Amino acid sequence: MAYMKSQQVLVPRQIYIGDSAELKCSFETDSVLFRNIVAQKGQIELSKEFFINQIDEEKYDIKSVSISSSGYNTYVLTVSFVPWRTGNLSFPAFDMGASLNSDAEVYVMGFQDFEVISITKTESLSTLRDIQSPLLLPGTTYKIYGLIILLLILFALMVRIIMKRKALAFFFKNEVLLWKYKKNKKATIRQLLKLEQVKTMADSQIAREIQKITRSYLEFRFDYPFTKLVSSEIMEGFNKATCNLMSDKKIFAAEEIVRIFVRTDYVRYGENVSFKREEKHQLISALINSIEVLEAVDVPEEEAKTVKVAGEGENA
To answer: Residue 12: its pLDDT value, please?
Structure first.
């Protein structure tokens, strides 16, 4: 049996157990058989049954055998396989003539031994390396850096909040208190307006309700027991609750409330005394105006003058 001369190349040059590899054997022949078949079909898949000897499937797994043209009268026989053992391996000779249905010509391809390398031998190690952590996915590094920066910013904010906790606590407490004052004012005005619409209640009873609503408002607003004071003590209560720090407008509003209390006392306790025509409306309106003044934020006199001058300049 004549063997064809060939040049053998292993792709890749170094293969390991479980790798997919190819053994390429280049040869030349002026056979018309190869020329016609390859010219018609390009690359031809050959059956694995035409290896002359038994294939050792414990050492390797042959996936396919094919032949293709690589030039004029030049061909390549390719054996695709997966090795399962290390060391020197070899394939049995392959009968290309029989696989091409040629009875007239015998073409047998012999193969040289090749080596399957051990990983430990390649790395010059006696033991395997420790398991390494997986590589980061593309873009993950930027996300990690962004997360670190965000955590640093949050940490800095937390440190600042801890350092300024007293100021922040005072700020939030003050905001909550202002919200409660606003809610108290709205509830008081709503109750007074509702009382103004009452037609069936006696004037003495209305006068008592006016004082009751107003005292409750003042006690919550100034944190002072206005509900326990008689009308003659109301002004003194304002001074003590505010430490005599009220502005002139608020002093006038407080005096107006005292005047309303005196008038409602007269209606409550006087014999056959009632409100004059439209007096109830006037008292409640004056009381609401006084409450609005007490709730208003005082503007410093110099700032008020500046705003006034700016307004006059715009009007001019």
So the answer is: 86
Whether 311 contacts 219, CB under 8 Å: no
Phi-psi region at 90: left, alpha or beta (left = phi > 0; alpha = psi -120 to 50): beta
d(CA 80, CA 22): 4
Q: What is the DSSP string of 128-196?
A: PPPPPPPPPPTTHHHHHHHHHHHHHHHHHHHHHHHHTHHHHHHHHHHHHHHHHHHHHHHHHHHHHHHHH
> Which amino acid, one-letter code, is at 172?
F
- pLDDT band, very low/low/confident/very high, at 240 (cuts 50, 70, 90): very high
Residue type, 227: T
Q: Long-range contacts for 34-42 (Cβ within 8 Å, ≥24 apart)?
A: 34/67, 34/75, 34/100, 35/73, 37/100, 38/67, 38/68, 38/69, 38/75, 39/69, 42/68, 42/69
Q: Which among 16, 10, 8 is positioned nearest to 84, based on CA atoms?
A: 16
**Cβ contact 94:65 at 8 Å:** yes
Give the tokens for residue 63: 């996936």
**Residue 71 vs residue 177, higher pLDDT:** 177
Count of C-beta atoms within a 10 Å radius of residue 209: 17
Determine what percent of the chain is predicted with pLDDT higher than 90.
33
Give the other-Cβ count within 10 Å of 60's Cβ. 20
The yes-or-no verdict on residue 312 having pLDDT over 60 is no
End-to-end CA distance of the chain: 122
